[in-house]
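Re: the request from the purification team.
They wanted to know what the chain is likely to look like in 3D before they choose a buffer screen. I agreed to run a prediction and write the result into the notebook, where they can find it.
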Amino acid sequence: MAAWVPSDALGRRLLCGTEYGTVRYVGSVPPTAGIWLGVEWDDPQRGKHDGTYEGTQYFKCRHPKGGSFIRPNKANFGVDFLTAVKDRYTVNDERDVQHGTENTLVFGKKTVEFVGMDSVAEQQSQLNQLVDISVRECAVSHAGQKEEISRTCANIRHINLSKNLLSSWETVTAIASQVQNLETLNISENKMKFPSTSTSVSGAFSKLRILALNQTDITWAEVLLCAPGWPALEELYLTSNNITVLERPDNVLQTLKLLDLSDNQLLDGNQLHLIAHLPRLEQLILRNTGISSIHFPDAGFGCKTKMFPSLKRLAINDNKISQWSSINELDKLPSLRSLQCHNNPFMDTEKNPETLRQLIIAKIGQLEVLNKSEILPAERKGAELDYRKIFGNDWLAAGGNWNPEKNKPSEEFLAAHPRYPSLCLTLTIKCPENPEQKPVEKKLPESMTIQRVKGLLYRLLKIPGSELKLSYESSKLEGKEVELDNDLKPLQFYSIENGDCVLVRW
């Protein structure tokens, strides 16, 4: 007897043993008799050819040896969603009788015993209590009878449908439309067909907050076509989909807080500009996306960009970023607090990992966590101090000067070290014995010696040739004054900090 072949077999997903594939051809293959299925395998190692046999092309494959023919009786076209749920979560009556136990219900690995329960009614009741369902690798291929899921499992909120036999987005919608309060959906590792044109917006995903579409071959254009149906979506996972080009999301994905584009080889870093105005995006994961640079052209040195206004956490591990200028650019992000940047070529420019970490901390002023390690205030202070020491001579050579009136570092220096000017101390200058002299606020480099500070104050305050006596007070010292009594020592020697007050007497 000839094996049964579904009428919609073309394009369907199937299992043959443990191998997954997509049906690309249904029909005869002369000179053999009977029906064959031409299959493009997910693992090209399973195939033999590209769909061409004995000089005749029956179907096409992306890989030159990604296809082969199998008989229909070797193909598993899968089961409906509810069958898979029952197989995973409910009792097998025959097994219970053989083991001599009362009726039991299995939730994952947990077995719950019910004494004297009525088999059908009790199982139905327990399925109705399920909130979190995982039917990963259960060969789910279709939704089943209409409304059967909603009648049987009314309380589902979270579904894991990864690595099944889902062939189209329509099938996913058919399942989701029966789950009224669906919040989390994982359909990763399903090679399916997505809409290629705008479709009517379904209410199936109206409460969906988290969606995983990893390894589904979806394009960004297809994401945007589906996105109007995700009005409440907060987290979207799109790893390993061969997404190379992005487009600006217009009136969609506006609620998104997390976006994971890892393992997609983006055309270039400028693709990020197209998603830069998602208003609520707090976390962007870009591991292994092939980007070699990051640039925010709307903001100059020391200014904040209007792009990614809410972005707090950024992961750019395993990329091709080779220039420190891209790290400088990250300081323009107004909300950035956490960065992961391991395995980028720019990190090879500094052999000492501690110095490397200090440079990144000094270059990004608001960073609180670097490569999953918290940046404590003392570490930041030390990093910024060392940064000023390392590049102090370069600053002077480029036109920097301890006298604010003469301080004009070159554009080239500011491009390489845009935060350097902001790393100077902002101090308030007061003359406690001359109240008519108003307090003055000045930015001074920590490396400036006391002798040079005095020279500046002579000119600033127009003081006659008296010997100046300097001290400072800080909110941390509870009203105590510390004398600045060594003219050859720099300000940093005395642990002066931003906002402290220098007292001048003569």
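For the purification team: DSSP finds eleven helices and 26 strands in the chain.
Please add any questions underneath this entry.
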